[in-house]
Amino acid sequence: MARIYESRKRILVTGGAGFLGSHLIDRLLGQGHEVLCVDNLFTGTKRNIEHLHSHPRFEFMRHDVTFPLFVEVDEIYNLACPASPIHYQHDPVQTTKTSVHGAINMLGLAKRLRCRILQASTSEVYGDPSVHPQTEEYWGNVNPIGVRSCYDEGKRCAETLFFDYHRQHRLEIKVARIFNTYGPRMHLADGRVVSNFVVQALRGQSLTIYGDGSQTRSFCYVDDLVDGLIKLMESPSEVTGPINLGNPDEFTMRQLAESVLKLTGSKSEMQLQPLPPDDPRQRQPDITKARQLLAWQPATKLTDGLQPTVAYFRSLLGLSAST
Ligand code: NAD
Ligand code: UDP
Ligand code: UDP
């Protein structure tokens, strides 16, 4: 008991009411820590954290990270930022502010507290990559003025800020480049491909394949990703990243649609729709660094991770298991 108390930390998770943040918080609370969740509920929902309402070590604060934040914590996970293209393109100026001003404020907070801070960066820093699979050394192929730029360039600038605070102020930083992650608590209507296909299949609607469906993504199950984030945070101080976290198993969108149809038993058809601008053609993480430095690799195959995801959306839509 005393040991748990000694190792208990007070941890700030920004974006904690979102998909990834809420799973991370569950895990941190399970490890015996105290968690302060800061979120403006732009894309996150109270439903994701309602099971923690009366948890004695959990606290929620509604706050926008583009404004300064004065709290006392031992560690910071900075996840606040809309992640789906529909959401981050809804108010692109606010998206850039969230990444850039949000990073400055959270780095300022970490600097005052002299605490570790982890940034949820993204595979989007590689843009539409011409190097495949993507290693951390690749500088990317990013359009600075397109519709995805508010997210991509915002996240790239946040990485710059993290490394400048590290060099200039000796701050302990951890930068994770997260590749497409899926699982329960994804937003029903956020337009990301896994939630779209599962919901469409369960509702008997056509699966919307953008372009010809030959573009690829590599999908990581949320539990694996959370493992990786915590391992990175707990790694020795010289491990700053950037470090790729994702599942290297790569699929075309057509293959994903087929897996979803098979798992749900749905008779839905596939419907081709125009490819959104600047949609990356291919994406697959090289996770050699994560394997070597964190002894981390994903354990969940796509079909195994899709099962609890389908079950989640079934229940959210009020459908029975046999539907
Ligand atoms: P999400 O949209 O479910 O969660 C983001 C959370 O941040 C939401 O709860 C939202 O309300 C909150 N938020 C947004 N702007 C805010 C602001 N200004 N102040 C405070 N809170 C704010 O998305 P997610 O999939 O959970 O992504 C979490 C983080 O991981 C994001 O930073 C995202 O860029 C990164 N990421 C996710 C993926 C993925 O596949 N899920 C891939 C790469 C990177
Ligand atoms: N900041 C914050 N919480 C803190 C300390 C700082 O939100 O506990 C914000 C502060 O408002 C500032 C930003 O973080 O805008 C960057 O802080 P830093 O000390 O690096 O820069 P400075 O205040 O010198 O501009
Ligand atoms: N996509 C699709 N149908 C959908 C939603 C997305 O074919 O209903 C495609 C999209 O064009 C992209 C891939 O799936 O090529 C992944 O899209 P998502 O928005 O999930 O993530 P990101 O593009 O940010 O990797």
- The low-pLDDT segments are none
The end-to-end distance, rounded to whole angstroms, is 46 Å
The averaged pLDDT comes out at 96
- Summarize the biggest pleated sheet: 7 strands, parallel
Question: Which strand order does the major sheet show?
Answer: 3-2-1-4-5-6-11
**Helices and strands, in N-to-C order?**
HEHEEEHHEHEEHEEEHEEHEHH
Shape annotation: globular
* Helix content bin: 25-40%
Strand content: 15-25%
How many beta-strand runs? 13
Helix/strand structural class: alpha/beta
**Gyration radius over CA:** 19 Å
Separate helix tally: 10
Ligand roster: nicotinamide-adenine-dinucleotide, uridine-5'-diphosphate
Any overview of this molecule?
This protein is α/β, with parallel strands linked by helices and 323 residues long. It is built from ten helices and 13 strands. It has helices at 2-7, 19-30, 85-90, 92-113, 149-169, 193-203, 222-233, 253-264, 288-294, 302-316; strands spanning 10-14, 34-39, 58-62, 75-78, 116-122, 173-178, 181-182, 207-210, 216-218, 220-221, 243-245, 250-252, 270-273. The mean pLDDT is 96. One uridine-5'-diphosphate is lined by residues 84-85, 180, 191-193, 196, 208-210, 215, 217, 253, 275-276, 279.
